[in-house]
């Protein structure tokens, strides 16, 4: 062609504006969450006291809580002292994204509710519910987020559930 065809494409993606109040709010929420976690981790009851130089059941929760509070304070200091960061890399909400988040939240609440039932006695057998509930929860989450292949819907939940059960339930003897 001898003439130039100019195509102007409209950009539907309008990036979010930088927001200092949003960053401060996020940092304060993170600080409150981590401070609560740290306070609760100090109240963990110990079955037996650890020997000097050994770690006990409170060690990792205390370490993680302390690190979380430190990072939250740093986030709050950066949010107050620095100019707000640009948010050009944030994509707009995808169709159905809000519904997926709501469904995942409801599934998670249901999972936690069923997890509190440790075992059920049926036909004279005690059936531990954790592996069953965890595998079903993972399958439902994967369906909500778009997994449709049978390989992903069967093998992955079973493998992850077995790993969690063997590691925590059998090896570390954490009551699930």
Give an overview of the whole structure.
There is one protein chain. The chain has 176 residues and is mostly helical. The chain folds into two domains: 20-81; 97-171, no CATH class. Helix content is 57%, strand content 5%. The chain has five helices and two strands, in the order αααββαα. It has helices spanning 20-41, 59-81, 97-115, 130-144, 150-171; strands spanning 119-122, 125-128. It has a two-stranded antiparallel ribbon. Strand 1 and strand 2 form a beta hairpin. Helix 1 runs antiparallel to helix 2 and helix 3 (97-115) runs antiparallel to helix 4. The protein is flat. The chain starts with 19 loop residues before the first helix and ends in a 5-residue tail after the last helix. 5% of the residues are buried. The mean pLDDT is 84.
Helix content: 55-70%
Low-confidence stretches: none
Strand order of the largest sheet: 1-2
Q: Per the principal axes of the C-alpha atoms, what is the gross shape? A: flat
Describe the SSE topology:
Blueprint: H1 20-41, H2 59-81, H3 97-115, E1 119-122, E2 125-128, H4 130-144, H5 150-171
Antiparallel strand pairs: 1-2
Helix pairs in contact: 1-2, 3-4, 4-5
Short description:
Helices cover 57% and strands 5% of the residues. The chain has 5 helices and 2 strands.
Features:
mainly alpha, 57% helix, 176 residues, single chain, 2 domains
